[in-house]
Amino acid sequence: xxxxxxxxxxxxxxxxxxxxxxxxxxxxxxxxxxxxxxxxxxxxxxxxxxxxxxxxxxxxxxxxxxxxxxxxxxxxxxxxxxxxxxxxxxxxxxxxxxxxxxxxxxxxxxxxxxxxxxxxxxxxxxxxxxxxxxxxxxxxxxxxxxxxxxxxxxxxxxxxxxxxxxxxxxxxxxxxxxxxxxxxxxxxxxxxxxxxxxxxxxxxxxxxxxxxxxxxxxxxxxxxxxxxxxxxxxxxxxxxxxxxxxxxxxxxxxxxxxxxxxxxxxxxxxxxxxxxxxxxxxxxxxxxxxxxxxxxxxxxxxxxxxxxxxxxxxxxxxxxxxxxx
Length: 325
Hints:
2 domains
């Protein structure tokens, strides 16, 4: 590219701050603008992170011809509307996970992006993580034999503050916020399930606080997943096969280390152990941001590593889960 992609970060929460910080570590992109609900908040964020422009009005931001890519880091319930407006303004769009509250809204965004001819992707940074990519390669090469099961969980007792996760009208949901990570990993490794069994704790206003899930796959394979925003649940993941297993150390959705254990016989014989270690750059968003820039430069409307079909498939599964819960 003749110049880096100019990115407008929409929303000034903690995740937006981390993404904006990692833009500075990614040569193919640059933080150009910040958009918030107030000029003061946007200006303060822009000054702190080094953005050239600050907007207190989203439409003004979309009207800036210098903006190439919009990153949406706003509450879940706002994603569909804000993304659709950006697409109609001819901007490429990267939406923090979950892309939308349900699969139907994601499908409508995918249709709009294809019609307009702009790039669209959900910000599922886990798929671009170096350790996760190496784990996927080991599995594809038969490093643990035939994969038979997967375990993953993400439980943290978040403070009961005014954050959007606690508000139904803003899309608060431990499934959408945390459960999406183990579910995405399970689908990445095992594919689509043939059956599911789920339980959880849901408030009267519809905000789900905890959940645990068993996914059944063909030939007896399975995944056991759990998530919570009110209690700790082990933050690691493990993938087991006929010739060994891989443990992805915390936090499994943005890891720096995994342990591979290989064994062709009973554990009485010492198994072969090896470590996968890949340091995280910045807050961990750099590989994803670089891949997005490369996809846009190549003229792709979707990212081959995380296309819209994958986003929609996970949301379809979560639609089923929310009904079950």
